[in-house]
Fold this sequence. Notes:
CATH architecture of the largest domain: 2-Layer Sandwich
Distance between the termini: 48 Å
CATH superfamily of the largest domain: ATP-grasp fold, B domain
Number of domains: 4
Number of strands: 23
Strand content: 25-35%
Structural class: alpha+beta
Shape: globular
Largest sheet: 9 strands, antiparallel
CATH class of the largest domain: Alpha Beta
Amino acid sequence: MRVLVVGSGGREHALCWKIADSPLCDALFCAPGNPGIAAVATCIPVSAEDIDGIALWVAKERIDFVMVGPEGPLVLGLVDRLRAEGVKVFGPTAAAARLEGSKAFMKDLFAKYGVPTAWYGRFTDPAKAKAFISEKGAPIVVKADGLAAGKGVVVARTVAEAHQAVDSMMTERVFGDAGRELVIEEFLEGEEASFFALVDGQNALPLIAAQDHKTVGDGDTGPNTGGMGAYSPVALVDEPLQARIMREIIEPTVRGLAAEGAPFTGVLFAGLMLTKDGPKTLEFNVRFGDPECQVLMMRLKSDLLPALVAAADGQLAHFDLRWHDDAGLVVVMAANGYPGTPEKGTVIDGLKDAAAVEDVVVFHAGTKAEIQGDKRVIVANGGRVLGVAARGPTVAAAQKRAYEAVDKIKWPGGFSRRDIGWRAVKREQG
C-alpha cells in the first residue's frame, strides 16, 4: 500500500515510525512532516489543513490509504473530501469530529446518551457565565468551546479566577473564535487517565490507557500545556475498570453518534477522571493523543496498519491487538517560554547520542532543519519540540532510560519536567 500520514507533530512521527515497519506498507509519505519523520517517510510540502492540496496530491500520487493525525483537518472535513473521491481514510467525518471541535456539542451528547461526566452550563454571554460561576462557587472549570491546541481550559481555584478566565476567553478572545461560547463545569477530584479505542462506525476495539502530565512544572504545577509527558500502563485502569469504561463511556458514545447521523470511524480518545464514584468523562478527542500516542506506539506489538484499515473498512468486530508487557514513557522537551511564547530557532545537538540509548526513540514534534555555515542543524520550531520515549520492564526503568537520553541532548534553549511518571513510580516502590 501507498500510505499518507497527515500532520507534522510528535504524534505523527510516532505513527509514521510504527507504520513504516508494516510489511503492508510499500511507500510512506507525510504531509507536511518534520525532520524526524523524514528518516522514515517522504515528507510532502503540503499543510495538514490544506484540504484541496492534500486531495489533489493524493489523487496524483495514487495513494491507497490516508491516516489523518491532528484534529484540525478532521474538523475541517478532510475525511469527507477524501471519501467522496473514493480514497480509503482513517478518521472521523466533520460531523463526528464535532465531538472534539465543540465541547458544547460533546457535553450535550453526554447528557442525551447517559455518558457519566461533570455537571455543566453553556454560555455565549459573559455576564450569564459569571453569574453561573458565582452561584456554583469554586473550584470550577472554564473551557473554550472550540479548538485551542490543548490550552483552552482553566481550572479556577477561586470565583475571581474563573471570572478572569471568562474575560480572557470571551472578551479578550485569547483563543480567537474558540472562545465565542464557553462550557463551565464541575471540578472533578481524582486521578486523570487517557483511554483509547479504535472505532469502525459500530464496533469499538479497546486499546490501552496512558496518563498524561498536563501542567508545565514538576509536581503538577504551573499552567496547562498540550502535555509534558506520558506513561503507560496505568495501574488504576485494570481489566474490570477497562470493561466499565467501554460499557459506560465508549460504547454509549459510539451508539449516540450513530443515532445522531454521524457514525464515528477512527480513534476515540477519552480524557477521564477516575473519581470515587467511578470514571467520569472530562472530554473526548477524535485522534490519538500527543504525547500519549508515543507511548502507545512504543508498547504496541502488533502491526498498526491492518488495524487502521480494519477500522476504515468497518471490520473491527473480530480484530485483536497485542501489546508489550513493558511500560512506555515519554518526556516532552519544550522550548523556553512555552506554554507562552516559545523561543524558536535555537539549535539542538546530541540527538544521535540520545537515540543510541537502549530502547529509546526520539520523536520530533516542533523541529526544523537548517543549513548553518557548512552543516545541517536541527532547530526548535514550536512549543513542544521533542518527545524522548523509552520502554522498560517497569515505569521506573522506562523513566530512567528516558531521562538518560534527555541528558544527552544539548539544548540550552529548551527544558523538560523531571518527574514524568512519578505517580506510577511511587506505586511501584510501594
